[in-house]
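Write out this protein's structure.
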Amino acid sequence: MRIVIDMQGLQASNSKRGIGRYILNFIKNFIKQNKDNDIILLCNGMLQDSIGVIKDEFFEHVDSTSFRVWHAMPGVSYINIENKSKIEVAERIREDYIARLEPDLVILTSLFEGLVDDAVTSINTYEKPVKTAVILYDLIPLIHSEIYLENPVVKDWYLKKISNLKRADFLLSISHSSGKEAVDYLHFSADKVFNISTAASSFFEKRVYLESEIQDWKTKFSITRKYILYTGGIDFRKNIERLIEAYALLSLSQRKDYQLAIVCSITEQDLTRLKNLCKKLGLNNDEVIFTGYISEEDLLAFYNLCEFFVFPSWHEGFGLPILEAMHCGKAVIGGKYSSIPEVINNEQALFDPYDITSICSSLSKLINDHAFRSELEKHSSKQCEYFSWEQTSNLAWTAINNNINSTKLNAAAFVPGNEKLKKIAYFSPLPPMKSGIAHYSAELLRELSTFYHIDLIMISGEETHDPFLHSVCGIKSIEWFKENAETYDRIVYHFGNSSFHWHMFDLLKNYPGVVVLHDYFLSGIVAHMDLHLHHTVNGWEKELFKSGGWPAVSMRYNAADTADVVYKYPCNISVLQNSLGIITHSEYSRQLAINEYGAGALPKWETIPLLRIPANNFNKADSRKKLGIDSDTLVVCSFGLMGPTKLNKELIKAWIDSPLSKDNKCHLVFAGEKPGDLYGSIIDKLINKCKCNIRVTGWLSNEEYNHWLSAADIGVQLRSNSRGESSAAVLDCMNYGLATIVNANGSMAELNHDCVEMLPDNFGKEMLVQALSKLYNDPAYRSKISKSASVELRKHYHPRSCAERYVSVIEGFYSKPSPQPHDLIRTITNFLGSDDNDYIRVCKSLAKNFEPIPRKRKLFIDISELIQRDAKSGIQRVVREVINNLLIKSPKDYNVELVYATNDSDGFFNARKYGCKILNIPDHWAEDNPIDYYPGDVFLGLDLQPEIVRSQYKKLKEMQNDGVHISYVVYDLLPVNQPQHFFPGAKETYNEWFSKITSFNSVVCISNTVANELRAWVAENAPNNSKRLSIDYFHLGANPAVRTSANKDSDDLDNLISSLKNKNTFLVVSTIEPRKQHAEILKAFEQLWLENLDVNLVFVGKEGWMVEELVSKIKNHPQLDKHFFWFSGIDDNLLAEIYEISTCLICASTGEGFGLPIIEAAQHNLPVLARDIPVFREVGGDAVHYFAGESLEIAAAIKKWISLKENHKIPKIENLNWLTWSQSTEQLINAVLRNVQQINGE
């Protein structure tokens, strides 16, 4: 059972009241009690701030796919009278969204919302209603309208909600009292109102406090003595004034011992009014305490430390504070009307809330009669046990199951002729067009016209010569159809992969209908429209990108033969997305779509067999006479155009090895045309070589084709590499009663195995030889298959039964909510005025609500920094390598989309032109538009751009709320952990960045060391984020070293390289910045040079920040270009050569995110001497030699290392295992998607 729960009760104004607490507890337990049902939590996208909170609350109860968010044009609060038409629009958008979820039931948790905010609640104002249950809290404003509905706008709003409430299928009341109100005042049938009661949160319990805690707490709230407690709100019906008046009637001695604590949120106006009342009654300032809003912890203390609880309200829906006080073991007294008696369940504890003396008498009795108070406390402890969220949930499920099971409507089965004929617009090639679909449609229309008034929509200038179609169908032009499209009840398009269908693509987009997909692959016609007809502008590239992503477009421009692109990518996604439903002739086509898009992401899809008119019963003898075949000849035929995918060559070879080739009375006939290419030549050679009764007929007319079907005894129809089409030839063989051999390829695997001789898809030659021999040697078996095939065709493939199935499927598709927005748009435009901005806002909301089906999920890669500037930094190097790999190979089930934002942009934009630049392909087809995102998409913040995260944080949270998984890569925490090495303010900037990115779904760090540092940071700085945040890691990669000669600009450089080879040369590769410790390394080598050690030091890296003094020293160093060298900006080839000629790589940094130079050194088998810090240990393992300390220790470590090297005792760097960038990218994406699968429950 699919149940949609409208969560606006936790989003709108009532969410902060008891209603909000009720909904939260009820839904959690409701879900817990029935985990086997499909429960969707539906949120209002106009109330963004609450969505994240709701997702956090239900994080452990449902997976992320259970959340849905609908969007409408904001600014629809009812209090603004100008919003009335916008509210109508929003109501229809919401109901349409719900209808397309196809729920068995909608639970509306709070109907009376939207007066002062953008909540939108309505029930079945849409033409396709859904079963709805409403949680009913009370009808107090209706019953006491003179008090609550004085304002005409509020009254209009409330009565409209009442009108909606009456359309609910049944009600879940929170008390018997509120349910009775629905029966008495709204005339609901009693059997449609179910009391599911309520319960208190388990948070409210008896608790013991330390004396010091009590004193601090009393001081905080000015509690100086025992007190009587009230909590619940300030409202006319809450009767606070009479409670204060009753308290004032107590004796002075009683009031000296007891304060009255009124604990609830209170406005300044109410506070002043009530204090004036106290003053008027002669009460001292300390006798009545008004706390204002307090925390739940403080409220729990108020319950536990009070003497007793009073609830003077004269009308409640339930009275939850009563139950909370009972859970804390307190005596409770309350008014005797509405729901309060059923909650308290003790007549002695009730008073007349309208009678001040009655209230006073009850207060006085509890103050004076300790035995009575003790009795009520015991009663409270027992009474509260009758209320539990488990019971409430079970009662709700019982009510739901009773109503769903008793009233569930089954779709009426199709009964021909049981209603007025509907009008249908029919798009298809028709005779005399040379298309198999044309012939198919002509046959189908003869039967379908019994059930519909059919207009054939044709291109101007085209016509059909079929007299029957002229007599029973209207014939209209496309232009006429466009002007009169709304007059049609149904639209059907027949799509195939030929030029006869080019005009249907745009028509389907603008006038959605049911699609009969004869060919799963439409790439031929899509490419043809773009390249030859010029009907679309870059249409092929866009279609390729839409379904196949960057690899598909790249292949389009890099393939040696574009036919290979046509063959690989079906280019059918727009047709699937724009349809109201898909009809194919086999399940195999649907399986292809499942393989491409996933089973849960397909449009409505049905299978109807490929119809076949019963055979004309040509006389076999006459056909054989006409074809020149003797009556005693065994004729084996294979029908259709010959080619490699028809496995004609394999059939010939099996024929040659079979006994049939030795029998002069056996003939193998290929009834069709042989291609005039290499394959045709191979066929000729095989036939000429064997000389065993094999012939090829060439092209056949329909009459000749039917004569061969009539004359044959055995059919052989083999296939390979099926592309989703159904074989008409196989059905023709079965139709004419041929014993037919097939292999289980594509749709042929679905044939009834009793009606054909079925071989495996990838059969061997001997298997085909055996099948031929079996049918040759066993006439009885041949006859059995023949008869079974004829019966099968007449039963399931007869035009009449297929036409009836068409009607059933078409009507079924149209009975469901439309997956396209066209009908909704026509409806809501009636409510919109002339403001263009309103239309824009509506269009934006509809774009979010209507997720294209099917579609590949998107993996958004944020390159906001790289697209602006390539600073050649280490981080940007990672970004470049990762996106280079992702553009070549997308993750399974995802299309990669490069995106970027600026500080002032409205969200993120596609970076497709940049993607083309990376792949070095034309970009004329690419458009950098605002991104479209839907639930299930993934956003990966690969680039480091804290400013963008700050400026786009609201948009990113909105994306997350809408179901996009947001993940960020963290390279290090150095500005936080080592702020002395960075510019002032860096620590604060990064702390803010970390606080924001850890509020998303996941973070992937570039090492486990960084991941552990981030976990510690989150625990200390953002503990609330840790509950649902996943922190994972991956390792960076390197490209295999390519030994190429560096580009040397001068002989001097050549000599320099030569001189480095002749000495121990120690290499440092990194940007020159403080934490890299270049200064300490240089000091160490200065010490070594003083000791006359003949060693070289080479720095490779550009100047960084906060190193001006060091750089000046480097440039003026006496050893520069002698024993000390600095390469500030060199290409990769020269860097590779320096790695090759160096003796050792030194990594002295005090902190790193990874340590990529270690990997690069390992590529060149260059040993490494590294500071002993955790991340270097993680990356280098036992393949690296480690040191600790500053310059002197570094100098000592270098001397020790040289000694170890001379004795062949240094660690073997070749033992270090490292990743390629391709493997690193895969590791990164796996880490991201692993978390996606976890929170999606996959």
